[in-house]
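Q&A log
Question type: sequence-to-structure
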Amino acid sequence: MSNLQLRRVAIVGGVRIPFCRSNTAYAELTNLDMLADTLQLLVDKYGLAGRKIDEVVAGAVTTHAKDWNLAREALLSTTLSPATPGITLQIACGTSLEAALMSAAKIASGQIDCAIAAGSDTTSDAPVVFQRKFARRLIRQGQARNLSGKLAHFKGFSLGELTPQVPAAGEPRTRLSMGQHCELMARDWGISRAAQDQLALASHLNAARSFDSGFFDDLVMPYHGVARDNNLRADSSIEKLAALKPAFDRSGEGTLTAGNSTPLTDGASAVLLVSEEYALTHQLPIQAFLTQGRTAAVDFVHGDGLLMAPAVAVAEMLQRAALSLQDFDFYELHEAFAAQVLCTLKAWEDEHYCRTRLGLPNALGSIDRSRLNVHGSSLAFGHPFAATGTRILANLAKMLEQKGSGRGLISVCTAGGMGVTAILER
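Response status: OK
Response body:
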């Protein structure tokens, strides 16, 4: 194999629509609607109309069977050249960040020059399907050649077969919801309710301050009458958060509430990635460079915390990049639950965990909390599963551009016991 000279992967910038609690402002919209409109916003922002992009990689977690190639169908609804390929992928909450990493690897190796990574999700338009037994009846009935044959397939039919199956957020192998799993993590790591509420409050206040200061003016575009995320609570307080009841464990021991956990959310986001040469040739801005990425998984069925994989992924990524955990100006840790972030931070500080689980000689150590989610995160914005990765990527790239230098770390936990992480540099 010949030596390959890797190219730098530039983040030009991103855009998103406001994130909204499910069954509110976007209740009548689909993933295709939101993804296509968000891609068009990106096209308009960077003058891409009529241009052939080497690939659009996007996905959604809660999907219908008809959305078999969501990315391609969405881009065909925009003014991008129809010669642009569309690739649909899904890795739960890490979907759009993984999309960015996959395209970045192709850009770095010279296979492509430009790409759009994106994600969309809605639980307002969740697929509701029939029980398998009734679905099989319909399929066999459709194959019958005559009326008597069609009717024969309904012999023994009961009304119970019509009970719809609504998508569930639980883990198929444990039958526990993500919130229940995170309660177990919080208990294992000794994470208090007060600490979770404090992190949630900081997320809301930081996000509100950043909207008011104009940080999001070119990142979040008005959409369907909404100008900012409708989960955001600028008037949140410790007292209000403390008054909420536990949402997943009502035994009296629970610490996760609706206030320190993300709500079901609808929304979409997108980011433009290019080679450095492409940016110069097409006079596109460069906000930051995507330099490292890592995806990891843990055995959550046999004892590992479901959402602890980012702790592993970051450790492996730092080793490959020859960096320490303290070598960053910004830390963007996706807040699926406040407890998840706090468990991850505590794991990095724990020498036993770092030695036995991460294979390190010492603990990774603490981070400067003033650099954590400085413009808010998912607890404030909400979390449309597949859209969160590129939401974070766009935010961090702009932060580094404004600073003029530096390095930022991204960490996203996902269902299925996985984590996706990345490093941006300016």
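Response note: The first helix runs from residue 31 to 46.
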